């Protein structure tokens, strides 16, 4: 006989769901929501930036606005420390 541990020996005590289900659930849900968001907001919008006028899909304009907001938030958070 060999002294091999049982297959579930690496599982933490009291843990009932496998690691791959819990770890991938939120990213998969967010990816599905992002795809639905893009498909629902494909219309072209006109954005005026002081002088130039830009025409782009609405989802791209909203995504750029989100990224700019995140960068500003991170910069303000870093400054407070």
Q: How many strands, which pairing sense, and closed or not: the largest β-sheet?
A: 2 strands, antiparallel
Rg, rounded, reads: 23 Å
Strand percentage lies at: 5-15%
Q: Structurally, how many domains make up the residues? A: 1
Please, what is the average pLDDT?
81
Which structural class best describes the helix and strand composition?
alpha+beta
Low-confidence stretches: none
Amino- and carboxy-terminal Cα gap: 59 Å
- Quickly count the helices: 2
Strand order of the largest sheet: 1-2
What fraction, in percent, of the residue positions are helical? Answer: 55-70%
SSE run: HEEH
Q: How many β strands by DSSP? A: 2
C-alpha geometry: elongated
How are the elements arranged and paired?
Blueprint: H1 19-40, E1 44-48, E2 53-57, H2 58-80
Antiparallel strand pairs: 1-2
Give a brief description.
The protein has 81 residues and is an alpha+beta fold.
Structure, described:
The chain has 81 residues and is of the alpha+beta class. The protein has one domain (19-80). It is 56% helix and 12% strand. It contains 2 helices and 2 strands; from the N terminus they run αββα. The chain has helices at residues 19-40, 58-80; strands at 44-48, 53-57. Strands 1-2 form a two-stranded antiparallel ribbon. β1 (44-48) and β2 form a beta hairpin. The N and C termini lie far apart (59 Å). The mean pLDDT is 81.
